[in-house]
Each structure stands twice: as C-alpha cells, then as structure tokens.
Amino acid sequence: MNLYWIWLLFNAVAWSFAILGFSGDLSEITWRLFGLSLFFILFFFMPLVKEKPVISTVLIAINAVISVIILFPQQGEQFNLFLLLILSLLIGEAYYQLSTRLASIIAIVSTIGVIFIILNKDLSATEISFILLYLVFLIAAIILYKQTKNEKDDFFLRYDVLLSEYRSLKRRVASEEESARQEERTLIAHEIHDSVGHKLTALLMQMEAFRLTADEKDQEQIQSLKSLASESLEETRNAVKVLKSNEIGGLQGILRLIRMLETESFIRIQFSVKHGAFTVPLTGEQSFVIFRSVQEALTNIMKHSNAREAEISFEAPGGSVFRFEISNPVMNSYRFEEGFGLTSMRERLEKIGGQLEVQKTEEQFIVKGFIKLAD
Q1: Distance CA 268, CA 199 (A)
Q2: Which residues contact 282 (CB under 8 A, 6 or more apart)?
Q3: CB-CB contact of 250 with 290 (8 Å)
Q4: What is the C-alpha separation between 253 and 288, in angstroms, rounded?
Q5: Cβ-contact 90, 64 below 8 angstroms
Q6: What count of Cα atoms within 13 Å lies in the side-chain half-sphere of residue 108?
Q7: Among residues 312, 321, 316, 249, which one has the least CA distance to residue 276?
Q8: What is the pLDDT, as a whole number, of residue 58?
Q9: Are 310 and 267 within 8 A, CB to CB?
Q10: Biggest distance spanned by C-alpha atoms of the chain
Q11: Which positions of the chain have pLDDT values less than 70?
C-alpha cells in the first residue's frame, strides 16, 4: 500500500474522533469543519511538492497551526487529546520526509502551539505533565529513529556503490581477458598467414615450375604433391579465417554479457533475434560497436533504473541494415540528459555509418541504433 494513503488513513481516523468530541451550536462546528477542509487540501498538495523540501516544511507547519486553532479548547471544553495524536502524525511525517533541520521546525511549531494552549487554559498539573512528557518522549523517539534511518540509508548507499564498483571491475576484467585472448588469436592468425601461408604458396609456385621441366614419368607424382600442398594451403587459410572471425563482440559476445548481467545483478532480460540477425555478416569493428552499445545501455539500466528488467532485440531486415533496440520500464518522471556513455555510443555508431536514437516515454526508456551493412 502506498505510504501516502497510509498517512491519509491515519489522519482521517484521528480527525474523525477529534471532531466527534465537539459539542456546540452549528456555527461553532462550521468554522472547525472549514478549517479541517483547509487542512486536508494542504495535505493533498503534499505529493506535488515532495521534491521541494522548503515548501513541504511550510505546508506541514501551516497544518500544525491549523490543527492547534481547530482543536483549541473553547469555554467549558477540555483539552482534546487527539490534538497530540494529530501533531504526532505531522511531526512523524516531517521527520520521515525531510531533513532533521527542517523537521525540527515542525516539532518546534507543534510544541509552541501546545504550550500556547497550556498557558491560556486552566489545566491540571497532571494534564500538563502528561502533555509535556508525551511531547518530549515523542520528539526524542523520532529523532532517534531519524538517526537510525540515516545510518541505514548511508549503509545501503555505500553497499550499492561498492557493489556497482565490484560489478564494473568484474566486467572490465572479463572484457580485458577477452581482449587479450582476441589479440593472441589475431597474432597467431597473422603469424600463420605470413609464415606458413606464404611458404606454402611459394612451394606451390616452385612445384609448378618444376613440373614444367620434369619428365613425363614424374608428372603424376608432382601433381599429387601439388594437390597435397594446395589442400594444406586451403586448410591454413580456413584456420586463419576462424581465428580472425572469433571477435570479442558480435552477438555471441552480447549473449555472454547478458548471461553475466543476469547472474550478477538479477536483471531480467528478454532477448529476441529477428530476420536473420544471427547469420548477417558483420565486420570486427561493427561487432565491437554493437557489443559496446548494448553493454553501455545495460550498464545505464543497472545504474539509473530500479526496474531491473530489460528487453533486447536484434534484426537485419533485407540484409542491408542491422538494428538493435534496448528498452526498460520507467520508474520515475525525471527528464533525462545524455551523459558520457550515450554520447560515446552515438559517436561510435556514427563513425561506422550508423545512427543512435534515444527516447523516453511515460512507460519506457528506449535506446535504438542501426548500422549499414556492406553490399
């Protein structure tokens, strides 16, 4: 249940019992009901100024003054104990939503209002002692709760920061390991291509020259050796292609990233591949840019979204472009500004002839991108 509606329920119950305790003519009840209406009008305004603590402080303080005026004992009336309950709710709401400094203003205003009633009404020593002790214990308990809450919030904030750093470090280590392996594969491929491939090509050329000058009886054997050398050269070329095509990025790298994020952060990811995106021919640079773009989008979700879920789709309609889309539910109404991550993603895509589109609706935050494929 939303906390706002809980506060509303508590105030409605407290005010119902407070108003029912009054007796008098209609005009006496009317102005009090008018004041009660003003109290709840200001109460309903509270969610609209939740992000403005100073205005929230003013509204709660006004409600505390209104409560004291409405429940101020008239001639022949006793002190209404429900005033203490209503002021307790206002003080508790202030300490829960505001800083200790601003919430203390509400506590001071409420205390001054109660003291004003005590000074202007003939209350017994027992009643005065009870009221003052109640306020002292209430404020002390709420201040202790506020300190405990601040320590708890600080602990969870530090925990989230450390957890985020740990995940970032783990992803960086995994990325660096994959980069090192890719560099080794590329180096081996170049070595094979430059040494073994070239020597086999030279061997074929020499065998062809030897065949032209050899006797007829040796032609069959030379052709057999030449075929064997050609097969060896073809296998060497295939091995080089395999080593070079095993890039760090691409859809396989993205799948590994998704599995890692799901395991580490419990983020739920729905993944879909459409229109032959798995079989589309991507260059190493294109695969790397797509990999980094998806990684950055998922990292932003982990940093800024409380939804912990995302949808990723890839498609290559007609084989002329490769598109990707990452979306996640929006949990707040704040405006977004492109930071360093999205700017870098856009620059990477534009460098290889692609584009990036970022949009935020009332329900989703969407990152779309595409790159043009070679003919």
Answers
A1: 52
A2: 250, 290, 322, 373
A3: yes
A4: 9
A5: yes
A6: 8
A7: 316
A8: 92
A9: yes
A10: 137
A11: 1, 21-28, 76, 171, 174-183, 185-186, 190-191, 193-194, 240-258, 260-266, 284, 302-303, 332-335, 374-375
**For residue 262, what pLDDT is reported?**
66
Residues in the chain: 375
For residue 259, CA distances in Å to 245, 251, 298, 310, 312 come to 22, 12, 12, 13, 13
Q: Strand 268-274 to strand 309-315: parallel, antiparallel, or no bridges (unpaired)? A: parallel
Question: SS3 letters for the chain?
Answer: CCHHHHHHHHHHHHHHHHHHCCCCCHHHHHHHHHHHHHHHHHHHHHHHHCCCHHHHHHHHHHHHHHHHHHCCCCCCCCCCCHHHHHHHHHHHHHHHHCCHHHHHHHHHHHHHHHHHHHHHCCCCHHHHHHHHHHHHHHHHHHHHHHHHHHHHHHHHHHHHHHHHHHHHHHHHHHHHHHHHHHHHHHHHHHHHHHHHHHHHHHHHHHHHHHHHHCCHHHHHHHHHHHHHHHHHHHHHHHHHHHHHHCCCCHHHHHHHHHHHHHHHHCCEEEEEEECCCCCCCCCHHHHHHHHHHHHHHHHHHHHHCCCCEEEEEEECHHHCEEEEEEEEECCCCCCCCCCHHHHHHHHHHHHCCCEEEEEECCCEEEEEEEEECCC
Tally Cβ neighbours within 10 Å of residue 141. 13
Distance CA 347, CA 367 (A): 14
pLDDT given at position 3: 76
* Cβ 59 vs Cβ 106: under 8 Å: no
Measuring CA to CA, how many Å separate 344 from each of 178, 311, 350, 369? 21, 22, 10, 13
**Sign of the torsion formed by the C-alpha atoms of 52, 53, 56 and 58:** negative
